[in-house]
Design goal:
Layout (H helix, E strand, L loop, with lengths): L4 E11 L3 H7 L5 E12 L4 E5 L6 H8 L7 E6 L2 E2 L5 H10 E4 L13 H11 L7 H11 L16 H13 L5 E5 L7 H18 L2 E6 L2 H7 L2 E6 L2 E7 H6 L4 H9 L49 E2 L5 E2 L10
Parallel strand pairs: 3-8, 3-9, 6-7, 7-8
Antiparallel strand pairs: 1-2, 1-4, 4-5, 9-10, 10-12, 11-12
This protein binds iron/sulfur cluster.
């Protein structure tokens, strides 16, 4: 079966300075790699969680998929068709198949537009004129659990949870096959976070939309994703079925993220593993394993030799010379 979305060896680069300054200061390579050699695929109706600290490249990866930042190397395919490098009219039909929910539920909604205008905006942007917009807005608000009276409200009259629901309604407008949700629960109270997660899970079950969730919140990943990938400095360090990664993490970074995650079970025994220090700058990537400057288990080999991708069985993969359980 053709995957809905396939990403192969994706690299996204940004310049750190203009070409003139680079020449004057003698900098040979003024570029940083925000995403390096990342590959993944998402099937129809599947939910994938992309996890990592801020600056790990997960939002940049999502923006590259949506054609919002250029792809330097690699391929992005939607239903088997390459879309990296496409723009304007050529990209439009693929953009309709994918919708992005941005962070900041209230700030991402234009304050001067009513909810009706906001939810109807994707139809206008994509030149869809053959639909009854009032009926569509009512349908979409109903899908996300908001009554038709919300259509006349402005963003400042919405709670954070209601604003997030309006964001979901907008994302669903053109019947996408994939929703990319960037931190869908950020800034929301815990109870409202649960409501939004239940809404996404319900929509996935009812309309079969695939969801790529970008988050640093592992409870989100645990509750709604089928598979997960952990990013560090723009690379995947571990990926696999969510249950397997939670039960048996192989990479020390995954272990540290999981142990820092608030445990929903109050009786659970916590063995906290602290991560040392800060995320290194992309301008000065550590040699060898790029996690070695923060890894509790680092040995001599780690600072000189980059680990290859290894299999932990099935689709569970990791990059570490001394995976957990073998650190002794
Ligand atoms: Fe830690 Fe070494 Fe594994 Fe890197 S390769 S994660 S430094 S043990």
């Amino acid at each position: 079966m053709t995957a809905l979305l396939e990403i192969e060896n994706l690299r996204v680069r940004f310049p750190t300075m203009g070409p003139l300054r680079a020449r004057l200061t003698g900098v040979a390579d003024p570029w940083i790699d925000a995403v390096c050699g990342v590959s993944l695929s998402i099937a129809e109706g599947e939910t994938l969680g992309l996890v990592g600290e801020s600056g790990s490249g997960k939002s940049t990866l999502a923006r590259a998929v949506m054609g919002l930042v250029p792809v330097a190397e690699g391929q992005v395919r939607v239903e088997g068709r390459r879309i990296d490098g496409l723009g304007g009219q050529a990209l439009a039909p693929f953009r309709r198949r994918m919708a992005m929910m941005f962070q900041d539920p209230v700030g991402s909604l234009s304050p001067r537009l009513t909810v009706r205008s906001l939810v109807a905006e994707p139809f206008r942007i994509h030149g869809v004129r053959d639909r009854d917009l009032d009926a569509e807005v009512r349908r979409l608000l109903g899908l996300v659990g908001l009554g038709p009276d919300f259509a006349q409200r402005f963003p400042h009259q919405l709670s954070g949870g209601q604003a997030r629901r309006v964001g979901v309604a907008r994302a669903l407008a053109l019947d996408p096959k994939l929703i990319i949700a960037d931190e869908p629960t950020a800034g929301l109270d815990v109870s409202v976070q649960g409501e939004i997660l239940n809404l996404l899970a319900r929509l996935q079950g009812e309309i079969g939309v695939a969801i790529l969730i970008i988050t640093h919140n592992l409870n989100v990943v645990r509750h709604v994703t089928d598979r997960m990938a952990i990013m560090y400095l723009g690379r995947f360090v571990e990926q696999g079925a969510t249950g397997q990664v939670f039960e048996r993490p192989h990479h020390p970074y995954t272990e540290a993220l999981l142990s820092a995650n608030p445990e929903p079970d109050p009786d659970a025994v916590l063995n906290r593993v602290e991560i040392k220090g800060e995320v290194p700058s992309l301008l000065r990537r550590p040699a060898g394993c790029e996690f070695h400057t923060r890894c509790l288990y680092a040995r001599e080999r780690c600072s000189s030799e980059a680990p290859a991708v290894s299999s932990a069985g099935g689709a569970h993969r990791y990059t570490c010379h001394f995976p957990l359980g073998e650190n002794g």
